[in-house]
Amino acid sequence: MNVYHATGKVDLTIISPNTGTHGMNCIYASVDMIIASLFLSTVGGDYTCAIGREPFSRKPFVCERFKGAFEKRYSNRDGMIYKLDGSLFYNNNTSWNEEVVCFQPVAPLDAFYIGNVEEYLRYLQSKDMLIIKMYPDRFAFIPDDDEDLIDRTCEWIKTHSKDDVLTSFSYYHQGLKERLMKRLASANL
Prior knowledge:
By secondary structure, this protein is α+β, with helices and mostly antiparallel strands. The chain contains six helices and nine strands, in the order E-E-E-H-E-E-H-E-E-E-H-E-H-H-H. Helix 4 (about 145-160) packs antiparallel against helix 5.
C-alpha cells in the first residue's frame, strides 16, 4: 500500500518530519491521494477551509470558512504530491482517521507536480471526485457559528505558542476573537 504526502515544496528527494498542529514531529500523509491534494497549500490551515470526507457520499471535501478563503488558500499556488511507501506509516496517532504518520525521513517512490492547485481541485470537482463548498454554503456538521474553530484554537494553545495561535486566528477570524478570549479566560488558558 502507498500513501500520499502533498506540499508546496517541489523536487524533494527526501521527505523529512516536521512539527504539525498535533505537536508531533512526523510526516503527515493520507492513503487517499485526493485528501492529500487538499494539503498542496496549507495557507491558513483550518482557519481558511475545513477539509474532510463527507459522511454520506464518502467523497473528500473542502469547505470555505469565509468568502474568498478557497482562493486565498489555493489560488496561484503550485506543489507536489509525493507517493510514499505506506509500510513506514502508522495510523491512529492523530485525531483524524484520514491521516497516517511516519517518524523518520522517507524517499518518495514517485512525485506528481501540480502547476495550478486551484485549477486541479476544480478539475477533481468536475469529475465528481471532490466536493467544494463555497461560503456561505456549508455542511450541516460544520457549525455556522464556527464554534469548532474556537474549540480547536483552545486545544492548539495548550501545545503551541499562544501568541502565534492567537495571531493566526485573529488574522482570519477577527469577528470571533471576543468569543475566543472569553473561552480562554474561563478555561484559564
